[in-house]
């Protein structure tokens, strides 16, 4: 298979960094963060960098970090199991009303959006309560809580089926045949955040008592070693949060489709549907070696596997099929990737520019979403070109409605 990566060498480390970054910006701080990660002895055989790469907390967003015998909680982060879901419907563009404002409002009423109490259910819908019970998530959480009572779990029954804020979204899109898709982006919400924060703190406490035979360049690379009780407990908890994130996306999708059935002509769901994480860790075998693979803003792209690569508000998104590239640990990017920090975007992008960039989309056009405007992100065209050996495009989607928290 042809390859499109470049070697981004880590000085003083035998661990290579392979980056799919041709034609896309790579900030110096992100590159330095990658070198720090690659310098840790149990990381490798190499680190893979996706074209949406940018500086992150704990680990670089857009990176794939394999580890042997150890796991780094802050590399996964606190938005555990964050990812995408999409489904194609039998609706066509002509079935949509010219004015989508009412549909957007109904989705926002049905799916709480935003952070804080305003982004939670006042009362858990019966369907969500049944989902939690039948999935075994409540029982799984109780088992985790029995060993780690300091983990707060009061948000689980208020946040299943909720969107959150930041870059999380719900979209109605059209593909190249004018078929209507529903696509959304969210994760394990506050419960996943509490679990991630708790174990990151435990890892830092462990680090203070470790005698290391190497230099750890960043406390956010604090880790658990295989065989330690906290290693097994974290694997159990992070797996639970990933399952919760998937269920959260399914719950939201059900609510969105319910609102669409009320306001649009009758439709069915087609077979093409995707639900994939892009902030997670799991055991995988690569080159005959069992590794713990952390994808921090990266999607699994095994040969034939479907994934979702969203652009930004106002730009295209893609349904892709993985090519199973071994150099990337069978991975691809999780989106366009930020080119501006949120602070920089708020200072640099005007409300007029945001409204012009999203003129064709029914969405929020106020100052509070400026940091999510298309100009804050890399060119999705360049990002897709840089990873042509990782995925093939199955469908190209264009947004017509976008809900943001």
UniProtKB/TrEMBL annotation:
Reaction(s) the record says it catalyses: a 3'-end 3'-phospho-ribonucleotide-RNA + a 5'-end dephospho-ribonucleoside-RNA + GTP = a ribonucleotidyl-ribonucleotide-RNA + GMP + diphosphate; a 3'-end 2',3'-cyclophospho-ribonucleotide-RNA + a 5'-end dephospho-ribonucleoside-RNA + GTP + H2O = a ribonucleotidyl-ribonucleotide-RNA + GMP + diphosphate + H(+)
Catalytic residue positions: 334 (gmp-histidine intermediate)
Residue positions binding GMP: 167-171, 278-279, 310-313, 317, 334-337, 404
Residues engaged in binding Mn(2+) 2: 185, 278
Any one GO BP annotation for this protein: RNA processing
One Gene Ontology term of the molecular function aspect: manganese ion binding
Binding site for Mn(2+) 1: 79, 168
Entry's EC annotation: 6.5.1.8
Record keywords, A-Z: GTP-binding, Ligase, Manganese, Metal-binding, Nucleotide-binding, RNA repair
Note describing how the cofactor binds: Binds 2 manganese ions per subunit.
Protein name, per record: 3'-phosphate/5'-hydroxy nucleic acid ligase
Species assigned in the record: Luteimonas gilva
